[in-house]
């Protein structure tokens, strides 16, 4: 069915590869089964994916349980109590971020809610934190579960408020230490420069009343300055003084559960001027709410956020037409509870999305997840501080070498989302080393008898009947599995020649029926060549094109 779809509707596979972590024969078959034209099928799939709560996810539920990954199910106060205070055992202290990494890979590979997981990945980059922060990492599952995942298809303003109050973000960008007698502008600057307006709306070192600064109307109907200056960052900082964490501070030693609190005594109560909007004195916590409202309703925020969404889903340099139409919708729905769902739907159903191909490359994590999906790998990474150098640890180490270990980007701007960031010889070489390892890696790397993550030989012999396992057939089968389309003839010729060795391209090859038992050297080399063939195919440009 998968190969028939390639010939009849190759666009469906290409669309899936950009809106999921990689098309598989099963996901393509489910999409085709929705019926109608390609456009009708795609619309049905998008609407289905944008309602993830209605999609059963048994594979993820079976792999991520309170027994296997307990920190994922702990409340904020439980995480704080069990891990934040733990200083003697660093492994136990950081177990929450380790299990969050494990969960991210599991969901990317096995979840049926693929569209949702892609968006969760996007928002983690947009509101990026360094997961291994000594304090923030201890409660990271709460940030992922209650802040990012809850709001990924909801309202941007609600997400912005949740991010600002999140304990992980409070520690990462120092908002917890922002007080009137010692203001810290770190969070306020990233709030404006990265999370909302974007650096493209920075006017430079100017007075806020400079007559050259453009004025406009926000999506809430209020007058607003369209560009920000440093004075706006300083006033946002003042507005957010007193927003902090119950962390056992010496002034409040009894309050120590890791939750958000507003300290009125730490707040700068005097009037503020933010983006041409006057904030009255003595409003307390409401000062910060006014700043967040102003930013969420600002037309610059709509354009900045929508351009990033289009960059993730369509192209490194998305057409201005789709950015403009998405931003207009984003602004008109700025108070709607399903604002982000409607905006993403608009992008995924647009002509610009459907027409785009080969304008993105899979980043290392996406390429790895796509490979595990295409290989039908059986792998559940877990935290284990007792075993030496586990398969899970090898995975994390190799992803770190590629430059895209989950939640490991130290800067607040999130992992880059442009091709040039991942096209260096270093990034590509480390990604290739990881992909080629997948065909040989075992579920337990310390046990030579442990099952392979993906048994390439068994899968090939199961799919192709005896007598039909020629180099031609094997290469075409794996092209369909890995690429979703047939590559250029030259690529096929190279891999067919590698697989056939001295045989003709149409001659059946002896792959055996099970693992080599040490007595048939020729069979051993043929099986090894097959695994290498699949690894080579995953390193070709076609596997990375989106």
Please describe the structure with a list of short key phrases separated by commas or semicolons.
single chain; two-stranded antiparallel ribbon; 6 strands; 51% helix; 3% strand
Number of alpha- plus pi-helical segments = 27
Strand segment tally: 6
Shape: globular
User: N-to-C terminal Cα separation, in Å?
Assistant: 22 Å
> C-alpha Rg, in Å?
26 Å
Summing up helix and strand content along with how strands pair, one would put the structural category as: mainly alpha
What's a concise summary of this model?
The chain is mostly helical. It has helices at residues 2-8, 10-19, 25-32, 38-49, 58-63, 76-84, 90-93, 95-110, 114-126, 140-151, 156-165, 167-172, 186-195, 230-239, 286-296, 299-313, 320-332, 339-348, 351-355, 364-374, 391-402, 425-438, 456-463, 471-482, 489-500, 521-538, 541-544, and strands at 215-217, 223-225, 243-245, 260-262, 272-274, 277-279.
Structure characterization notes:
Mean pLDDT is 94; it is low at 514-518. The protein is built from 27 helices and six strands. It has helices at 2-8, 10-19, 25-32, 38-49, 58-63, 76-84, 90-93, 95-110, 114-126, 140-151, 156-165, 167-172, 186-195, 230-239, 286-296, 299-313, 320-332, 339-348, 351-355, 364-374, 391-402, 425-438, 456-463, 471-482, 489-500, 521-538, 541-544, and strands spanning 215-217, 223-225, 243-245, 260-262, 272-274, 277-279. α13 crosses α14 (230-239) and α17 (320-332) runs antiparallel to α18 (339-348). The protein is 51% helix and 3% strand. It has a two-stranded antiparallel sheet. It has a two-stranded antiparallel sheet with strand order 3-4. The protein has a two-stranded antiparallel sheet with strand order 5-6. The chain is mainly α. It starts with a helix and ends with a helix. A hairpin with a 5-residue loop joins β1 and β2. The longest helix is centred in the last third of the chain and has 18 residues, at 521-538.
């Amino acid at each position: 069915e998968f190969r028939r779809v390639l010939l009849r509707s190759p666009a469906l596979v290409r669309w899936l590869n950009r809106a999921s972590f990689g098309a598989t024969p099963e996901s393509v078959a489910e999409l085709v089964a929705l019926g109608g034209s390609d456009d009708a099928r795609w619309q049905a799939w998008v609407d289905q994916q944008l309602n993830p709560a209605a999609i059963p996810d048994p594979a993820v539920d079976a792999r991520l349980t309170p027994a296997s990954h307990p920190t994922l199910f702990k409340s904020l106060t439980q995480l704080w109590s069990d891990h934040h205070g733990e200083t003697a055992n660093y492994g136990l202290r950081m177990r929450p971020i380790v299990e969050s990494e494990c969960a991210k890979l599991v969901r990317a590979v096995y979840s049926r809610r693929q569209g949702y997981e892609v968006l969760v990945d996007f928002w983690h980059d947009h509101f990026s934190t360094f997961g291994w922060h000594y304090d923030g990492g201890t409660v990271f599952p709460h940030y992922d579960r209650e802040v990012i995942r809850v709001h990924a298809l909801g309202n941007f303003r609600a997400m912005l408020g949740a991010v600002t109050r999140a304990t992980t973000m409070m520690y990462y960008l120092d908002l917890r230490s922002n007080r009137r007698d010692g203001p810290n502008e770190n969070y306020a600057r990233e709030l404006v420069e990265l999370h909302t307006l974007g650096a493209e709306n920075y006017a430079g070192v100017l007075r806020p009343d400079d007559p050259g600064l453009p004025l406009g109307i926000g999506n809430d109907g209020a007058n607003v300055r369209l560009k920000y200056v440093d004075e706006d960052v300083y006033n946002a900082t003042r507005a957010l003084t007193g927003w902090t964490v119950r962390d056992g501070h010496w002034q409040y030693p009894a309050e120590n559960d890791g939750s958000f609190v507003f300290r009125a005594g730490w707040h700068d109560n005097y009037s503020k001027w933010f983006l041409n909007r006057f904030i009255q004195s003595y409003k307390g916590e409401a000062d910060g709410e006014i700043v967040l409202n102003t930013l969420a309703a600002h037309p610059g925020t709509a354009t900045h956020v929508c351009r990033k969404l289009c960059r993730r889903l369509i192209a490194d340099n998305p057409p201005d037409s789709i950015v403009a139409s998405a931003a207009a919708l984003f602004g008109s729905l700025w108070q709607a509870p399903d604002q982000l769902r409607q905006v993403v739907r608009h992008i995924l159903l647009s002509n610009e999305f459907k027409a785009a191909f080969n304008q993105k490359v899979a980043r290392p994590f996406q390429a790895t997840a796509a490979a595990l999906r295409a290989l039908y790998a059986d792998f559940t990474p877990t935290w284990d501080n007792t075993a030496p150098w586990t398969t899970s640890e090898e995975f994390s180490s190799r992803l770190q070498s590629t430059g895209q270990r989950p939640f490991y980007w130290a800067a607040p701007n999130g992992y880059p989302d442009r091709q040039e960031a991942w096209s260096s010889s270093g990034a590509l070489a480390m990604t290739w080393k990881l992909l080629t390892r997948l065909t040989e890696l075992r579920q337990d790397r310390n046990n030579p008898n442990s099952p392979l993550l993906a048994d390439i030989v068994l899968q090939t012999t199961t799919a192709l009947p005896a007598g039909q396992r020629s180099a031609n057939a094997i290469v075409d089968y794996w092209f369909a599995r890995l690429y979703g389309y047939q590559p250029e003839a030259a690529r096929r010729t190279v891999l067919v020649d590698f697989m056939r060795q001295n045989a003709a391209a149409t001659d059946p090859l002896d792959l055996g029926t099970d693992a080599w038992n040490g007595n048939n050297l020729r069979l051993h080399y043929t099986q090894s060549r097959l695994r290498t063939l699949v690894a080579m195919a995953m390193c070709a440009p076609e596997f990375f094109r989106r």
